[in-house]
Design goal:
The complex is a heterotrimer of chains A (222), B (392) and C (331).
Chain A lengths: L1 E12 L2 E13 L4 E5 L6 H8 L7 E6 L2 E2 L5 H11 E4 L11 H6 L9 H14 L15 H13 L5 E5 L7 H16 L3 E6 L12 E6 L2 E3 L1
Parallel strand pairs in A: 3-8, 3-9, 6-7, 7-8
Antiparallel strand pairs in A: 1-2, 1-4, 4-5, 9-10
Helix pairs in contact in A: 4-5
Chain B lengths: L2 H13 L1 H37 L4 E7 L2 E3 L1 E2 L2 H7 L6 E11 L4 E8 L10 H6 L3 H6 L3 E4 L1 H9 L5 E5 L5 E9 L11 E5 H8 L5 E2 L1 E4 L7 H11 L3 E5 H39 L3 H12 L4 H33 L5 H6 L16 H27 L9
Parallel strand pairs in B: 5-9, 6-8
Antiparallel strand pairs in B: 1-2, 1-11, 1-12, 3-10, 4-5, 4-11, 6-9, 7-8
Chain C lengths: L7 H30 L7 H38 L9 H5 L4 H28 L6 H28 L9 H5 L14 H20 L3 H28 L19 H23 L6 H29 L13
Helix pairs in contact in C: 1-2, 1-5, 2-4, 4-5, 4-9, 7-8, 7-10, 8-9, 8-10, 9-10
Classes of the chains: A alpha/beta (222), B alpha+beta (392), C mainly alpha (331).
The structure holds adenosine-5'-triphosphate and magnesium ion.
The site of magnesium ion has 4 residues of chain A, from helix 1.
Chain lengths: 222, 392, 331
């Protein structure tokens, strides 16, 4: 359950304030599949970042799973990101010199789990993301589609209830897009809340979308 | 400590090896120099303490102005009267200058039938065949440096000395003194007492100075006072004073090196600071990603500080080991000369490995505190990278 | 210039303390800035930057704490070493009492370590809480600690600069030696009583820890400081030296006694510090601090075990306990 009220995020440019998003209010229920849609520069990534606890709002209220995250100390906000959010970045953002396995295990390190527990969880999410066969490859050697599946596995490994994806299909070819959509569908069935920011029209054709949110110059248009 | 964290630490450390390696090499050089100097000075210190063990407790000299002059043998009788002094050994020694070459030898006269009085020489002389030594009246024992000198100048086994009056005395090399004995300096020539007096031009009834021992340290002070009271121009030196003089000399040398090292350290710190402040875009991005994945500032700080500590420990271990090999196995070439000055060496270091926790922690503190102090701000800066960086 | 300041070990010690002070000075400046600008409820970039700066203070304090933790035994060791060249001194006891700074310096070092430990404890709970409830408390504490550290640095320098290696000192046997007819033990106790008390207070500390009675624990700790100290000085120490009349807290730090003084005093003061910190956490911050308390119990148990070991070891070897002999000590 995500609740957003009058959310603003602005940047101070000289004496002016530039609003990346302005006065956004919305709510997303658990298990929903939500699309953030808009042209480049409309504020999709900004809104997504704030929901993911990666960026902080300039004002307004946001609560995720009953946790007020608009004003949390780093220790708590990080724990929130770790437990509640799985992020799939636009450029995958893998740790290029590590193996797929170690990339996927990275979010579990601060959790102080045993190596055995980590191994169990990593293998499980590698399997869901269909990348088990590449577990021991160095990330930089993977193809674009494999990189993304590795990123998906990493987003799943903490068993977060919310998965956010920033422009997930921007760098993929048709075949890989289909694979990706398959995985998303699987996750949707697992009752995960899924938020995708995109300007790719392919998502709008999907029949299991629950909500489409249009952004224009940082403002919500319905 | 959880092992997944250390596994991850090592992996990411290894993947950044290009960045770490220059810092490690730099650190190793610094630690190597630092530990070599400290090892060397500790060894010297140790050698001197050992050597002093063989020195007499007291030495009594006659002074003329600030110069030592020869003293009449009769003073012995006065010394013996002091209750704590049981036995007095007259000593004869002096420098013999080879003017054209600018070299000098230390000529020491020894009473071979009273070797107990020469602490430390006992061992050497006991192993010698005295009968053979006295078959010739012109035998001498030479230090290893003198031996080398003789060979270089083709003296074979005989060398001619000139007394101050111009009389020539040719001496025959009987044996070379073992190199690693604490008492013996390499420029030493040992001859029987009468011969030494002749070479050095000391009158028959005079000696260089007197030596005696007082076993009870508590009596030292009173003995010093009593001996000084015998005559206005007597100087009394006890062992503790010469130990202190040596210690001060080494502290001075050490202090000198320390101040040079301080300058090196400051430049090293600046290099480190700059090196760690350099924006490695991948490093920054990786930390941003980890932060976005749920690592808190505390977690990334821990990662980055352990990385810095790893650099500290790796370079410390390697640097100290290399210095150990350099000093104790190769006997610190070059450095030894810089440290002691190449001219007349007082005591040849014995290079007995004297390493204790204290010395090791000295090196550690002197290196680790400046190191971490200079990287602390850059490391903090990188560790607090905003997770938002990962969304770009 | 005083030659002792050129002594390598002392120079390293002073340099280390100085560098730490410089780094702490940076933290101190940042700390003042934060105290002025801190406003947790603000959404400004400034506030987020400030929250990050607070972590800089934290790492600097952790670093200083660890280094000072190493520098304290190093300081003692250095004094031991220079006792070789100071006439009359045979261990640190002589050196430390050479001038007025020695003892003060030792106590301020202990106080700083304790306060730093308390700061770290408060900070730990502060950044784990949701609104930084103790931010100002810990910041003011740091201001105080920094003032102490500045004084410490000056005393560090003054202490070594003032030692004259040509003056003859008294050493432990005259400083701590039994005075004829005067009972050196506190509260007029005799030796048997103080040993019984020693073990009783230890038991009291353990039981109040597990019984969660903080005030009893606090009383136990306060009693244990003098009782523990004097028991070692006048009873357990003599078994370490195996000399009935040798009462010195410092000689046992030397190599001749396998440096046993370091773990012994380390575990003793460590236990006291951990205990005080834990009680503060529970009573003032209302936070459960089991970990600290278990560490305290562990620390004291090590301490008591070492003490007891030497007595039993002596008894096992000789079949008797040490009896103090009344002799006139010469030195
Ligand atoms: N640090 C910043 N300082 C100033 N302006 C910024 C900053 N970060 C983002 N912006 C601005 O905020 C606006 C929204 O950016 P955002 O990244 O959310 O857009 P987007 O919808 O994700 O675009 P795209 O589809 O290209 O990814 C943009 O105009 C951008 O220039
Ligand atoms: Mg975007």
């Amino acid at each position: 359950m995500i609740e957003i009220k009058n959310l603003n995020r602005y940047y101070q440019v000289g004496k002016e304030r530039f609003y990346a998003i302005r006065d956004i209010s919305l709510s997303i229920k658990k298990g929903e599949f939500v699309l953030f849609h808009g042209v480049s520069g409309s504020g999709k990534t900004t809104l997504l970042s704030i929901i993911a606890g990666v960026d902080r709002p300039s004002s307004g209220m946001i609560s995720v799973n009953n946790e007020l995250i608009s004003k949390l100390p780093d220790q708590h906000l990080s724990r929130f990101r770790n437990r509640e959010i799985g992020i799939i970045f636009q450029h995958y953002n893998l740790l290029e010199s590590l193996t797929v396995y170690d990339n996927v295990s990275a979010p579990l390190i601060p959790e102080r789990l045993s190596l055995k527990e980590i191994d169990k969880r990593v293998k499980k999410s590698l399997k869901i993301a269909n990348i088990s066969h590449k577990a021991n490859s160095i990330a930089s050697t993977l193809s674009g589609g494999e990189k993304q599946r590795c990123a998906i596995a990493r987003a799943l490994v903490t068993d977060a209830s919310i998965i956010v994806c920033d422009e997930p299909t921007a760098n993929l070819d048709r075949a890989n897009i289909d694979i990706f959509l398959d995985i998303l569908k699987k996750l949707h069935k697992l009752n995960k809340t899924i938020i995708v920011s995109t300007h790719d029209p392919i998502f709008q054709k999907l029949d299991y979308i629950d909500q489409i949110i249009h952004l224009e110059d940082g403002v919500l248009v319905s | 400590m959880n092992s997944p964290f250390f596994r991850f630490l090592l992996l990411s450390f290894y993947s950044e090896k290009a960045k770490q390696i220059t810092v490690i090499i730099f650190s190793i050089i610094i630690i190597f120099i630092l530990s070599s100097v400290l090892f060397l000075s500790t060894s010297m210190h140790y050698s001197i303490t050992e050597a002093l063990k063989y020195q007499p407790d007291f030495i009594v000299q006659k002074m003329a102005g600030d110069r030592r002059v020869n003293i009449s043998e009769r003073v012995t009788d006065e010394l013996i009267e002091i209750p704590s002094i049981a036995k007095v050994t007259p000593r004869v020694y002096g420098r013999y200058f080879l003017k054209p070459l600018g070299k000098s030898f230390l000529v020491v006269g020894v009473d071979f039938f009273d070797v107990q009085s020469h602490r430390g020489l006992e061992k050497i002389i006991d192993n010698m065949d005295l009968n053979k030594f006295f078959k010739r009246r012109d035998n001498m024992l030479v230090g290893e440096g003198v031996d080398r000198f003789m060979r270089e100048h083709h003296y074979d086994n005989n060398m001619t000395f000139f007394t101050p009056k111009g009389k020539a005395i040719t001496l025959h090399k009987f044996a070379t003194l073992p190199k690693n004995s604490e008492l013996v300096s390499s420029d030493m020539v040992i001859v029987p007492i009468d011969l030494a007096k002749k070479i050095l031009g000391i009158k028959r009834r005079e000696v260089s100075d007197f030596a005696f021992n007082v076993p009870n340290i508590l009596e030292w002070e009173i003995v010093t006072i009593k001996v000084s009271a015998l005559d206005y121009d007597l100087r009394v030196i006890n062992k503790k004073e010469s130990y202190k003089a040596y210690a001060e000399f080494f502290d001075f040398k050490g202090g000198f090196f320390l101040s040079i090292f301080l300058i090196v350290l400051i430049s090293f710190s600046l290099i480190l600071y700059q090196r760690y402040s350099q924006l490695y875009s991948t490093e920054r991005r990786n930390i941003g990603v980890l932060r976005a994945l749920g690592w808190s500032i505390k977690d990334t700080l821990k990662l980055k500080f352990f990385e810095a500590l790893l650099v500290v420990f790796i370079s410390y271990t390697i640097g100290v080991s290399l210095a150990y090999i350099f000093v104790y196995i190769f006997h610190a070439p070059i450095l030894k000369n810089i440290f002691l000055g190449s001219s007349n060496i007082m005591v040849e270091p014995t290079f007995v490995p004297v390493i204790d926790i204290f010395l090791l922690s000295s090196i550690f503190l002197l290196y680790a505190i400046p190191f971490i102090a200079s990287v602390i701000i850059p490391v903090w800066r990188i560790s607090t990278t905003n997770p938002k960086e990962a969304m770009r | 210039m005083n030659s002792l300041l050129l002594n390598t070990d002392i120079a390293i010690f002073l340099l280390g303390e100085f560098i730490l002070w410089v780094v702490l000075l940076i933290a101190f400046g940042v700390n003042l800035y934060l105290l002025k600008k801190w406003d947790f409820h603000s959404y400004t970039n400034l506030q987020y930057r400030i929250e990050k700066l607070a972590y800089l203070i934290m790492v600097i304090i952790i670093f200083s704490f660890l280094m000072k933790f190493i520098l304290l035994p190093y300081f003692v060791f250095t004094m031991d070493k220079i006792s070789d060249i100071v006439p009359g001194a045979m261990c640190s006891a002589g050196v430390i009492s050479f001038n007025a700074y020695g003892m003060k310096l030792f106590f301020i070092k202990m106080a700083i370590l304790l306060l730093l430990m308390i700061w770290l404890m408060i900070n730990h709970y502060d950044i784990e809480a949701k609104v930084y409830p103790w931010f100002r408390a810990k910041s003011w504490l740091f201001v105080f600690i920094f003032i102490l550290i500045t004084i410490e640095l000056y005393w560090d320098y003054a202490f070594f600069a003032d030692i004259d290696i040509h003056k003859v000192l008294n050493c432990c046997s005259t400083l701590y030696g039994l005075l004829e007819g005067v009972n050196p033990l506190p509260f007029g106790l005799d030796k048997r009583e103080i040993i019984i008390l020693f073990y009783m207070i230890y038991a009291m500390i353990i039981s109040s820890t597990f019984g969660k009675q903080n005030y009893i624990l606090l009383i136990g700790l306060i009693l244990f400081i003098p009782i523990g100290y004097y028991s070692v000085l006048y009873f357990f120490g003599t078994y370490i030296y195996e000399m009935p009349n040798h009462n010195c807290p410092f000689c046992m730090l030397q190599k001749d006694y396998y440096y046993i003084g370091y773990p012994l005093w380390g575990s003793f003061f460590g236990g006291v510090f951990l205990g005080i910190t834990a009680i503060l956490a529970e009573e003032r911050l209302k936070k459960d601090s089991k970990r600290l308390k278990y560490l305290m119990v562990l620390s004291f148990t090590i301490f008591v075990t070492i003490c007891t070991f030497f007595v039993l070891h002596y008894y096992y070897k000789n079949g008797v306990f040490l009896e103090p002999v009344k002799v006139e000590m010469v030195m």
